[in-house]
Here is the input.
Amino acid sequence: MAGALTLPVPTTGARRRPVPGNRHWLLLRAGGVLFVLWAAATITFFALRLVPGDPAEAILGGPGSQAGPEALAQVRREYGLDQPLVVQYLTYLGRLVTGDLGQSYSLHKPVLTAIGEQFGATLTLALVSLALAWALACALAAWSVRGGRVAWAIGSGLELVAAAVPHFWLATVLILFFSLTLGILPPVSVPGPLGIVLPALTMAIPLAGFLGQVMRESLLTAMESPFVTTARARGESEVRIFWRHTLRHAAIPAVGLSGWAFGSLISGAVVVESVFARQGLGRSLLSAVQLRDVTLVTGIVLVVALAYAVMTLVTDLADRLIDPRTRAVAE
Amino acid sequence: MRFRPTVAETIAGVLLLLLVVAALWPSLLAPGDPLAVSHADAFQPPSLAHLFGTDESGRDIYTRVVHGASESLLIGVLATAIGIGLAVVLGFVAGLGPRWLDFGTTRVVEVLFAFPGLLLALLFIVVTGPGVLSSTIAVGLATAPGYARIIRSQVRRTASAEFIEAARVLGRGRLWITARHILPNVTAALFVLATLGLGQAIIWVSSLSYLGLGAVPPAAEWGAMLAAGRTYIANFWWMTFFPGLAIVASAAAATVIGRGIQKRNRSAA
Here is the structure.
C-alpha cells in the first residue's frame, strides 16, 4: 500500500481514508473486477444447475423441447454433465476463460457469436442515451440555478418523472406524441439515425432528471463556495467561472453516478428495445428468457456484468481525474 | 413541532389514500365488474360512461384500473418486503458480525450489485419460470443488494454511537443491544427505504408483466393491462395510457411521501 506516501486527504463527506496512488489503485480495482466476474460466473453456473429438472433438458430448452434420448445423451457428454460437479464447474470456468460461452439452442449458434452480433446496437443506444442525458442534465442544471422558481419547479418535476416513470410507459407516450400525432418520427426503430431518436430519448429523459437533480444541488453548493468568490475577486468573467470552476465541481457526483447510470441503461434497454422492436442485447436477453435458453441468458448476463464492471472502473477513474482530492499523493 | 405538508405531499397523500381504498374496497370507487365482457362496447374512447374508455372485449378500463390496484399494490408491497427483509439480514450480519463476516457479506452484496437490477431479476425468472410470484420474488431479490448497503452503513453508524458504548459498559448483552437500541434506530431509515422502494417495486414488477414475464391478461394487474393494450396502441391509446398513469401516479406518490419523511427525519436528527 502507498500509505506512507499518502497525504491526509481533506475530508469531504465519505472520503476520509488516505487514497493509494494511481497505479496501486488501478491494480486493486482491476483485481476487484476479476473477483466480481469470477463470482458472477459462479452464480450463473449454479443458477444453471438450479433450473428444475434435467440440466441437459434445460440446455435443450426445458421440458417443452421434447428432446430425444440421443440428443440428451449427446448434450450430457458435450457439457460433461456425467462428470462430478467440481469437474463440471472447473470445466465451465476453463471454457469461460477461453471465451467459450456455450451454444444457444434457440439461435443454433455459439452464444459469443450471438452476443457479438447484438452488442454494437445496444452499446450505441446506451452511449447515445447517456450523452443525451448528460446534455439534458447540464442544460437543465445550468438553467435552473439562474431560472428562479419556474426552473426550480421544472427541475423538481423532472426529478419526480425520473423516479416514477417506467420506460415502457414513457416510450408509449413518446410514440403517441411524436409518431402518431406529429408523425415526424418512426414508432419502431428503423435503421439510420432517425430510428434511434425515440429509443434514446426514452432512456435519456428519466436519467437526465436524475443526473440533473444531483447536479443542481451540487451546482448550488459550488456557487456559494469561497473559491468562486476568489475567482470573482481575481476578475474572472462569470462565464469562465461557471465553466472552469462551478460546473467542474458540480459534475463530480454526477460522473460518479454514470457507472450506475450505465447499468440502469442496460436494464432499460431490455424494455426499450422490445417496445421499439430494435435489435440488441436487451431484446435477445428477453427472448432468451421467454424461451428459457439458459446458456444464452447466462452468457448475456456475464457479458453485461463485465461491461458494467469496466464502466464502473472507467467512471471511478474519470472521477479521480476531475477531482484532484481523490488522488492527493505526495511525490 | 407542527407537521405541515407541502402541496405535493398533500396530493401524494390523497393519491395513496385512494390507492389503499381501491385496493381494499374496489367496489366503493368502481361498482362494476372488471371482467364483464361486452363486445358491443369494444374500443370505446374515454367518455362519461367509460371514464378511461374500454378495451378489446368492451371491459371498462376505469373499473379494471381500480380493481387492479389490489394486485399491483400487493405485488409491490410483497416485493419490497422481500427485498428489505433480505437486506436487513445481510445488513445486520455485515454491520454487527465479526470482521470476516462483514468482509464476506459485503463482497457478496458487491457481486450482486455487479448485475444491473433487471438482469438479476431475469436470471431468477429463467430459473423459476415466469409468473406473478416468481416475478415478485425476482424484483425483491434484485433490489436487496442496494438496500443491504444502506442498512449496513446505518447499523455501523448506530453501533459506534456513544449510547451503545454506554449500554455495553453497563453489561448489556449483544442481542439485547441489537434489539433494544440498534433496531429502533434503524427502523426510521427502513421505513423511508420501504416507501421509496415501493414505487420502484411497482414499476419493476409491472415492467416484467409488460414484458410477459409476470401477471398475464385478463388479470387486471396494471402491467398486464399495458401489455394487452400494446397491440392496439396505434388506434386505441387509452388502453395503455390509463393503466400506465396509475403506475406513474402511485410510484410518484410513494416517492414524494418517502422523500418527505426522509427530509423530516433528517431535520429532526
